[in-house]
Amino acid sequence: MNQTIESDAPEDFMAEIEKLQDSLPRKINASPENVEKDLAKLVLTLLELIRQLLEKQGMRRMDSGSLSDVEIERLGETFMKLESKMKEMKTVFGLQDQELNLNLGPLGNLM
Amino acid sequence: MQPRIYVYGIIDSAKGPEFQRTDRRIYSIAYQDVAAVVSDCALLEDFTGAVEERALFHEGVVETLMDDFTVLPMRLLSVFGGREQVVSMLCKNHVAFKANFTRLAQKVEFGLKVLWPSEKIRERIGTNGKLSANFSNVSPAKAFMLEKLEEYKHEKAFLDEAETLTLKVDAFFSGLAAEKKLRKLQTERLLLNASYLVKKDVRMTDAFDKLKTALPELEYQFSGPWPPYNFIVLPHPQNED
User: Nearest Cβ partner of A16 from B108, B115, B153?
Assistant: First the structure.
């Protein structure tokens, strides 16, 4: 069978595919020297996921008009504190934003 | 000492082909009504070098088989200890292989990747860090929420545009495909990474030409026919008692 292969700007496609492959380590690289940091990374990733989900849910409700002004104010304060606390914890463990993610293989990235 | 066996793929026939490809004899090992297409490899053969060359050779053998058989291609460098191990593998997976052959008979895979101008889309929607309103007259908590809402709306608009465009692209092929796998927005620019399973006689290149004419502002990478790499369904390995 003869293959058809047509590509616009192959280098552009290569660049995007490389982004997919290089983005994250596939396994948690736990070692005795950095087990504390790796565990923190895992825990903070899950916390960040929950924080983002809560924020998104809040935005959906705000967008649909189902939040009162008082509720918006209270949620805003809570989310601000959560975001600030997460930044603090990332600093304590020396973690960058892009490190807080998990590669779920065929399912893609967690976040 | 028996040689190791390199397996290229599984075919839906007990009577497999036998041919020479460069210095390797390609032959088959049958089990009931299926067969593994294989070649011998030396006990201490080194698989660490020249991966691209091996990949091309492996792919070449699989493509040759596609002309006459339905092929379930094996992963590159699938090596078994000997003939008995190959037969054991065929036996353990026979039911799953037969189910796949029924589903995939006379079908091939085409791949389509689409890049879109995501930066221009975001500029148009207005999400390049520029907020559309001044939130200085409200409390910090409310300003926080209003800023997040604006980001949320812009992200939603971006995702909605991606979804709409993906559906437009997919419309050119979905009527032709028995099955499809759509991976959407794997990166900011990679709008779609699609695999389509179609009958061998379907004219996918005609559909692709129509797509290019209809949506010339996108960039495309189109290829096929391939063996149905993305449509093989096998059960997870069970732990043996």
Answer: B115
Determine contact: B201 vs chain A, CB below 8 A. Answer: no
What pLDDT digit, counting tens, does each position of B191-240 carry?
999 999 999 999 999 999 999 999 999 999 999 998 898 999 887 665 44
CA dist., res. B216 & res. B210, Å (int) = 10
A73–B139 C-beta distance less than 8 A = yes
Which residue in this structure is represented by tokens 């923190």?
A: A40
Query: Nearest Cα to B203, choosing from B177, B181, B169, B183?
Result: B177
Q: How many Å apart are CA B226 and CA B110, to the nearest integer?
A: 6
Q: A1 vs chain B: nearest CA distance in angstroms?
A: 6
The predicted model gives B136-158 an average pLDDT of 91
pTM (2 d.p.): 0.82
Residue with tokens 């992200």: B155
Count the alpha carbons within 13 Å of A97 in the hemisphere toward its beta carbon: 4
Residues sharing a CB contact under 8 Å with residue B230, sequence separation 6 or more, in sequence order: B109, B181, B195, B197
Q: Encode pLDDT of B102-136 as tens digits.
A: 999 999 999 999 999 999 999 999 855 455 566 67
With beta carbons under 8 A apart, name residues in chain B contacting A75: 141, 145
CA A79, CA A100: separation in Å to the nearest integer? 18
